[in-house]
Amino acid sequence: EDAASGQLYVETVQSLFVTYQQTTTAVHEALRRRVTRPEAMKPEAYERTLKARAFDVARYLLPLATNTSLGQIVNARTLETQVSRLLSHPMAEVRELGMKLREAATGPAWNVNAQAANAFIQKLSVTDQNLAGEAAQLFVREVKTAPTLVKYAHANDYQMKTQAELSQAARELLGGVPIASAPVVDLVERSESLEVELAATLIYSAGRHSYRQTRDVVAELPEARVDEIVELGLRHRGRHDEAFRAFHAGAALRFDFLMDIGGFRDMHRHRRCTQIIQPLTTAHGCEIPDNGDMGPGVNLLEEAGVLAEFKSALAKAHAASDEIAASKAQEAEQSALYLLPLGTRIRSLFKMDFAEAQYISELRSGPAGHFSYRRIAWEMYLALQRQHPSLAKHLRVTDFTQPIDILQRSEERRVGKECRSRW
């Protein structure tokens, strides 16, 4: 147990939350000064809209340690794969989550009507014990959700051994190579063989460099070395193991994104594409929201007078994370990741067909979305326009460079939610 690291961890999280609260309040006040409430708009709706935009700005400070909730609807086969993946994770908390999922799936399911049913059965037993017994079998008997498939889910040797070997290969190949500057969205044209794409994607998944830089390095390797890297991805594959996601190769469009974690979480929801996500790191720095979608030169943090404190909080969090990662604390590198704010940049590769690129760029560029991923969607469109102008002209995107009315944005979000709920 490293007491100094523990204290630094707690102090950093507390500091981020304090700055988050201060930023939220200050930006909210700045918005009140900048945005006038229309007479037709109710005061509560106006305040709700301004608070939502203030949160959109301040959320960059929230650390990954922030508690959150998650619900999912999943079939047993997919749950088995998910539990196995969680049990193979290097972080203890994630492995514990895998065990709890397995226990929940193989144990009795929660009966929402159990209390009322037991009360009814108790009353029934007074007059008819046999009927009460039959009612108990119907209404309060134990029902297990997935007693067979998930029961045998265990840590996956293929995943653990392969990830370790790919990380080593990435260090050997690119460890001494400086990370080249790259745009926030890079549509990497196809110029390499399928073998090089597979090898580059495997190395990318364990590294920090952009896909273009990784691809170019791998493309210069001898054919035998490329084959060795591909073989690394399959060497430990068991009889029932699905090959790594990197082997979903051959997609026409490859977008390499470099964006904040908060915005990435929304982009991550798109499933009609192959996503290769790099490990979290402080190497790419932090994104600072500039609120350019509200007009040229608009910077709410600066107007609110908290820009310096905002930047300082992010920098201190990264410094603390690096310090803890280098300490001798148990699972130091994994624990240090919890200090990373949502503004931390993460790199990910999205491989897709044209229809999915069209869908994402149109949907995510809309004014109802968060300005982080709106910018990414707009940059996707611009990248397509440069490389495939005859196709890009058919995309119905919203120009991110044109200012939006945040009060109108709130109304569009409300209507959008109503439409989704009706559907």
What would you say this structure looks like, in words?
- The protein is mainly alpha-helical and 423 residues long.
- Helix content is 56%, strand content 5%.
- The protein contains 18 helices and 4 strands.
- The protein has helices at residues 3-34, 43-58, 76-87, 92-106, 114-127, 129-139, 157-174, 194-206, 211-219, 223-232, 261-267, 300-304, 307-325, 332-336, 354-364, 371-387, 389-392, 406-422, and strands at residues 185-187, 253-260, 274-277, 345-352.
- The protein has a 4-stranded antiparallel β-sheet with strand order 1-2-4-3, with helices on both faces.
- Helix 8 crosses helix 9.
- It is globular, with a radius of gyration of 25 Å.
- Mean pLDDT is 91; it is low at 414-423.
